[in-house]
Design goal:
Rossmann fold, single chain, alpha/beta, about 270 residues
Length: about 270
């Protein structure tokens, strides 16, 4: 009888605790929209993840920040949050953030290589020309047609993504106004892309472009090539062309991205 009484008491306490929990309306937390379409340039379905700024209005037009490695489980969420934070405190304008989701980043972010070791390490590499055609001919027109953009474009990439940012800068500088290359893999193809810096900076050294580059403490494998780019920019560029380089000795190749992008916006937008 005593055991039964204790059981009844425990059930009563448990029921009371349950009834003390308020009812809630549960709904998905929606941060953006996903757009999937067939790419003629790549011959496959590709996805863009789009996050609009707070208060997105039909009466205004907005800059666009493009994020490579832009899948929802990659760099898009934290970089979109960074853009939102900076705009909240007027350190950057409210912007549309577009993540270009990955299928094969090794293929898409690298140009053809003459290095046997590169081909062994990344056997699918070498497809950046088609990916650049996808960006220029499909991604940018799609976003401009469906959203209220103002022509102000930034592209952000790290590691192999940073390599592609530098290739876009050197080969298609008209596509973006701001290029952010964090720990770019300039070692690829025996550093061939860095060798383009001299010719590029002579031809476009007075263009209205902003370029931000950064390396971490363990990025020694690309430091010589970065120095080659910096030397060419130092010798051949002047306003309105603007470029910055930062070392992050307290960061590694794996941890540098968020801090470097924050610093890039400070540099490019003139934030203090």
């Amino acid at each position: 009888m005593r055991t039964l009484a204790l059981l009844v008491l425990l059930l009563a306490v448990r029921a009371g605790a349950q009834t003390g929990v308020p009812e809630a309306v549960v709904a998905p937390l929606v941060m953006g929209t996903t757009h999937t379409f067939r790419s003629a340039a790549l011959g496959q379905d590709r996805t863009l993840n789009v996050i609009l700024p707070d208060g997105y209005a039909d009466s205004l037009r907005y800059p666009v920040v493009y994020v490579l490695d832009g899948s929802v489980n990659e760099d898009l969420p934290h970089l979109a949050g960074l853009v939102q934070f900076l705009s909240m405190y007027e350190m950057a304008p409210k912007s549309i953030v577009v993540g270009i989701a990955n299928v094969d980043r090794y293929r898409d972010f690298t140009h053809p290589t003459r290095s046997d070791s590169d081909r062994v390490w990344l056997p699918t590499g070498g497809g950046s020309a088609a990916f650049i055609a996808f960006i220029a001919g499909e991604v940018l027109p799609y976003v401009d047609a469906r959203f209220r953009t103002n022509g102000d474009r930034t592209i952000i990439g790290q590691s192999l993504g940073g390599l592609l940012v530098m290739e876009l800068l050197f080969k298609r500088p008209e596509l973006f106004g701001r290029y952010v290359a964090v720990s770019p893999s300039l070692w690829w193809d025996n550093g061939s892309l860095a060798k383009m810096a001299e010719e590029f900076s002579r031809a476009h050294g007075q263009a209205s472009l902003q370029v931000y580059m950064a390396l971490a403490r363990d990025d020694d494998w690309m430091r010589a090539q970065m120095q080659e780019v910096r030397a060419a920019f130092t010798a051949n560029t002047k306003a309105p062309f603007a470029w910055w380089y930062d070392d992050f000795p307290e960061e590694t190749h794996a941890t540098i991205l968020h801090r470097a992008v924050y610093r890039a916006f400070e540099r490019m937008r003139g934030a203090k």
